[in-house]
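Aim 2 progress update. The chain analyzed this quarter is reproduced below.
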Amino acid sequence: MIAKAPPSGGAFLYTDSMTPTKKATIIIFATVLIDMIGMTIILPALPIYVEKFSTSTFTIGMVYSIFAAAAFIAGPILGSLSDRYGRRPILIASIFGTSLGWVIFALAGNIWVVFLSRIIDGLTAGNVSVAQSYLTDIAKDDKDRTLKLGLIPMCIGIGFIMGPGIGGLLTKISPVLPFWTTAGLALLNAIAAYFFLPESLKKSAQKEQKSPIQLNPFKSIIYGLTHKKYRTLILLLLATSMSFESYHAMFIPYLHKQFGFDVSAAGLLLSGIGVMIAFNQLVLMKHFWLHRFKPFIIQLMTATALILIFALAGLVPFIIFLGLLAILGLLEGTLSVINGSELAAAAEHHERGKIIGISHSLIAISQVAAPAISGFFMDSYIGSLWLFSAFWMMIVFVILLTHKTELRNRHLEPELEKTAQQ
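Predicted structure tokens:
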């Protein structure tokens, strides 16, 4: 094994049996995986830790929402910066920001310092969006792009397998140990990315990004929503995120209030969901979903099934609830990956980071609104998070039906262009 430095910077390990693209994929996978393990370590502990400052589910929801509000502002900016200066430096800076945010969180003495820590983390929250741009840069074709983007949900799944269980154990040692552990992992991750992650964006593409960096997230969002090429795909992604975020942030409080789960039990359940997510991305995505169905059909099937799952989740006995969660773990990652892959494919290479950043900014809007709404109504009705999830998934279904011609024919356009050229 001989260590060489790639032309664009960053050490890289070359072997005779592995291509540079495959190595880059493995490195970005490891980078995101470590990040996700760190993030999932804090899941069981965070709501319980925040309760020492406030017992309101609304306040817990706001801890998630304020992070998302900061990420909303930063998303398009970080994406545009990655288009101009490359994915690597922005990704490293984002990971370091995560570390700093959790250090401040662990040292918090009141709820306002907790909010400050989440703002810092949110303003540097480019980890996943820049990683998506990176993987899209090095993908060979549509299927390869979808499979590579599927690595991120798989990292989330593995993170859920390992992180919550570790977090539950760490919490028993000290309430703040999960946050220090996450900060340490993020710092090590930033150091590793600096030494081993090469640049994915070609210099020619960086030079094409000549427009000023837009600091107003609303103008960036208006650009995405008014651009004919991106509008439907972005709205689809936003409605999907509203559905999922309606239950994500409030899932642990729901388990605690509805079934009496403590931190350790909730961590084990999240680990089980992680197994389903990882299995879906590792096995089913390649050998079932993409092998048998076109992207639009996958979107339509998963949206229909998710509506039924969300409608039933708050009504069924615990054993059936567990079965629904297992199916949910399979379907959620599938729909998210297909939505993200379709948008990444539509984006021009010189503004790919910006468009993916816009999509993550809109996801951040859902992370602001959905937890706050769910948390507010959960104080009156514990099952409201599932009702909101079902409602927004119905919006996804309507978008798919009303734009089915556009979405189904998008993959035919490159073939028609080739035919016309011949």
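Residues 1-16, 412-422 have pLDDT under 50 and may be disordered. Strands lie at 2-4, 12-14. These observations will guide the mutagenesis experiments scheduled for the next reporting period.
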